[in-house]
Amino acid sequence: MTSLDQTFSALADPTRRTILSQLARGETALSDIARPFKMTQTGVTRHVTVLAEAGLVAVTKRGRTRYCRLQAVPMKAASDWLSDYQQFWNERMEDLARHLGETG
């Protein structure tokens, strides 16, 4: 699987997107990440593992606590890939506006 595939696969899950939103505010203990979810800490750890394998999260252990930190570089690559299609959609919207102007 390419890194871009891993990024999109990791981002496809709403729980993982929520975790990334939490981490955008700063480094967080894994137990604090798990608190708002209605799942076991093991379940949250599995989600964090997917994010880490995609390069979106770095996990470090200090003492008995694991801390997670956002690594946004893979999201930049995904954003760059998506932006290639922005011109396509802009052209479609311009075509639609012209069509509506001609028929209105």
Walkthrough of the structure:
- With 104 residues, the chain is α+β, with helices and mostly antiparallel strands.
- It has a single domain (3-103), classed as Orthogonal Bundle (Arc Repressor Mutant, subunit A), CATH 1.10.10.
- It contains six helices and three strands; from the N terminus they run H-H-E-H-H-E-E-H-H.
- It has helices spanning 3-11, 14-23, 30-34, 41-53, 73-83, 86-103; strands at 28-29, 57-62, 65-70.
- A three-stranded antiparallel sheet has the order 1-3-2.
- The model has no long low-confidence stretch (mean pLDDT 92).
What is the 3D form?
A: elongated
CATH architecture: Orthogonal Bundle
Question: Number of helix segments?
Answer: 6
* Tally of individual domains: 1
- Which class do the helix and strand fractions yield? alpha+beta
Helix/strand order, N-terminal first: HHEHHEEHH
**Major β-sheet annotation:** 3 strands, antiparallel
According to DSSP, the number of beta strands is 3
CATH superfamily, by name, is Winged helix-like DNA-binding domain superfamily/Winged helix DNA-binding domain
> Which stretches are low in confidence, meaning pLDDT under 50 for 5 or more residues running?
none
CATH topology: the name is: Arc Repressor Mutant, subunit A
Major sheet: arrangement of strands: 1-3-2
Give the helix proportion (percent range): 55-70%
The level 1 CATH classification is: Mainly Alpha
Mean of all residue-level pLDDT scores: 92
CA-atom Rg in angstroms: 19 Å
Cα distance, first to last residue? 49 Å
Strand content: 5-15%
